[in-house]
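REQUEST ID: PR-0412
SUBMITTED BY: lab tech R.K.
PRIORITY: routine
TASK: structure prediction, single protein chain
INPUT:
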Amino acid sequence: MRIRYLPDILVNQIAAGEVIERPAAAVKELVENAIDAGATKIEIDIRNGGKSLIVINDDGHGMNRKELSAALDRHATSKLPGDDLLNIKHLGFRGEALPSIGAVARVKIMTHDRESGEAWEITCEGGKKSEPSPSAHPKGTKIEVRDLFYATPARLKFLKTERAEAMAVKDTLTRLSMAHPNIAFRLTNDGKTSLNLPALLDPQGRLAAILGREFGENSLSIEAEREGMTLSGFAGLPTLHRGTSQYQYLFVNGRPVRDKLLHGCVRAAYSDVLHGGRHPMLALFLNVPGEQVDINVHPAKAEVRFRDPAMVRGMIISALKHALHAGGFQSSSSVADRALDVMRPEGYTNNNGPSLPMHRGSAAAVPRSYAYGGGMGEVQHMQFQAFSPLMSQTAPAAKMEEVHDPAAQNFPLGSARAQLHENYIVAQTADGLVIVDGHAAHERLVYERFKAQIAERGIEKQGLLSPEIIELDEQQSALLLEHTEQLSKLGLEIEPFGNGAIAVQSVPAILGGKANIRQLILDLTDDVLERGDVQNLEEKINEILSTMACHGSARSGRRMNGEEMNALLRQMEQTPHSGQCNHGRPTYIELSLTDIEKLFGRR
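STATUS: complete
OUTPUT:
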């Protein structure tokens, strides 16, 4: 078989398969070009999910005749002034988008050059472009893409339904608009407005417009800086969570990305306050010096590679944990909204409009087993200082007048007034009331006490009578041994043993005597290979502490007197993350007096 050169049209069609795999990808590339052109307003119109028509209209600086003709040639770009592929300051830089689209569709470009004041237009069908001709286009650039993939009809078979493709286009624009709140975006789908976002100077306002009022009211500001890298954005409270990670928006240097490293950082930061089956809502914007990140590792630029991933991971996790800690015992207002929805009669409306939608979901069960063996029976030997129960098994029922402490109303969680069903505490605040799940709250307090004791004393190690030898390949063992010091702090001591093998000398005592050491080492090795750290072991230890706290906390059915109830409220106010239990469920619901009066039609 002889080697031959492929024709340019076929080369462009192959490139289109890598860069333009669906209408949303074409929209992304063209909108990024508009952003790079300094547009302040971008309008997108699609038909049939983008299969039959895509129109991008912007008010950017436009192109002159020569630039317009070159824009449809491969690897022609105005966004890479030098030859440094690491110092990229624009969204598009490869010069592949327009020629790739022109190779598989019918394209018409009309542009008005802001400098010369001249307007030109050009067409391209199946990779064959025309000569530029004068145009009457007023300002900016307008690109029409018709019959996408008409030149490669086999690719049409791999597209999804028109509705699915339209939703993908909207999701693409949503992510781009989050990173550029100063630009107005408008999407029209089959003649109907699907997205309309005016330009804003407030990033949180743009996020609230997209993710909803609920996120705007229940998100924490994220700000961090380390060695030239900056992190900003907003992260939802742990009690504001979803069933999938699709509401996590991550950006690197203004580019929306879906990066395993970054998603792993989010999971690690929330692992202590949110059950593994739930996902927080957030939008994070990471800015990294160009020489510290490679954005040229994926055809669609959806993934990036960091020069120092450990530093990036450490900054993101610490920033999120710091914000969550600063949020203290705060709980999402969506919890109160759902409570109000339940209490409203069916079909209830008021002068302020219909009631908020009800979100129903099943609470996650408390984990009972562990991948590395060991259960509650194996951890009884741990010498924890007992966390004194705030509740007395035989405490008499308190009278209402004995419970109330008027001075305590000024505290965030107010003054206890009663206990219902031997578990739920009703407290009165200065402008409303709070309902506390006593068991869930006490569970979090016990858990945080356990963690504080471990942080103070360290994790007890259980030495093995004879070392456990685990066979790994040389690369895996070398990577794992780089984290020897960190593992030792977590109670796991390892040493090299011959060619690629690991000798385990001790394990955390909390894992119990039946720990599956081999599986533990293999999982930690996978963590290092995938995420660059050994976070899995710490998560497992916290998981066991969480279950111990659940079993060791005061159970429902115990009566409390007024002093005990108020003591619980005061400790909640001083304990980090006490707004949710160890499994992500809220520990209290706060209702304002205004909300209560609305329930009774008084407002």
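NOTES: Residues 338 and 358 are 6 Å apart (CA to CA).
REVIEWED BY: pending
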